[in-house]
Queue: 2 jobs
Job 1
Amino acid sequence: MKKIIDNRRYDTDTAKEIGCDGYSNRSDFGFWQETLYQKRTGEFFLHGEGGPSSKYAKTVGQNEWTGGEKIIPLSFENARDWAEKHLEADEYEAVFGPVEEDDSKRLISLSLSNMAVETLKRLAAESGKSQSEIVTEMILK
């Protein structure tokens, strides 16, 4: 399929196919298939098609529907989100790079005895580490 959108050309024949996902087969009214593509320029787009009960359906009369297809330009972030939901891990990482595990921290509230708080402060001061680092090390031992 070829389409011009916002003065940009999208062509499924010349773009690189990244991966696809779908539901059922073409004889099912709910059938849909989406394929993620990347242009030579690095831009991403989705080619979707589906049956009369899919999100790609088109009206052909009063309360009458048929299958249809559509090209949807995607930002890098939206392409990455789509790939995360619809592709296998190896397919995803081949395009978007290896995923680093999330080592982010979470803020929690704790109730500690006065003695425990003073000990935590002392250990942090002696070691030059934060109180969070001290508690994390104690828990993960």
Note: The helical segments are 76-86, 89-96, 114-127, 131-140.
Job 2
Amino acid sequence: MKPLPEEPLISVVMPVYGAEPYLAAAIKSVLDQTYRNVELLVADDASPDRSKQILDDWQDERIVRLHNTENQGYLKTCNKLLLAAKGDLVTFQDADDTAPLNRLEIQLNEFRKNPNLGLCSTNYVLTHADGSKKMERNWEIDFNRLKSTSKPNVLYCGATFMVCKEVIDKIGVYREFFNRLGAEDFDWLYRIIENYPAIHISDHLYFYRQHPSAVKVHNTNIRKYFAHDIVNYLRAERLAIGTDSLENGNRKKFDQQIERWEAPFRNDPSHLIRLESQNATNNRHYWTGLWLAVRAVIKKPLVSKNYIHFARMVYTSLRKVLFGE
């Protein structure tokens, strides 16, 4: 690993879409860091609100603007910023989140203590829309253990990742196969830890804001429902033979597996609606979850699973609303 300079430049990438109410706080939490040698790379992804204007009006020479004229989605926008980063270290800041002002300094110190370190992640705090604390997320992650398992069960906040620029130069950025599917950060993380030392520290160095408008653009691509299975399949291939189907282009078995994962959706159109219903309920959108459960019954009234699912959604919603469980 190339030694860091005495005062390394830290690049912070911030893709932006529809973040007007929270964007100023996100920008300030980067520019007001105790560690000052920072560049903030921002890209408005054709937002429907004033996000681009806020970015353009902000006066600070450390801001690099790389806006999209048409919506490209998170993955492509993020990749553009990662590839443009000039820093010795690179990290993330979502446009509706914030961070404690010593975040960069603390994570930088981890790289100074271990010159071979490739990645550092941290714990984080969930906040309400107004920024008040909701709960702490305390994960204990052993990246050395994760290296040897093809089906890792790990939770983290990808925005806390800080990586050496050398990692991006060798591993690359998010793979476009995962565009608008999700799980691209899991795929990226596993490819990194297979090649570089990584550490997770217990400090809560990120404030993840939960708010009603924090919803993704509606996506009907069924592969998003088994994106993590895809990641684990590719990881198992690399552990077995040192490469995977996306790297070597030998996709026959991989594509056959994709077809097997897609089969339940093709055979039962209400399967997707049940999953959407479950996701809505998990995110505490109870009425939406119930409405989708009804839609599943209407779509396939002869499928018994739909009635079982509807009953479960009614029970879950009532329990959550009445007892807060």
Note: The CA atoms of residues 227 and 325 lie 29 Å apart.
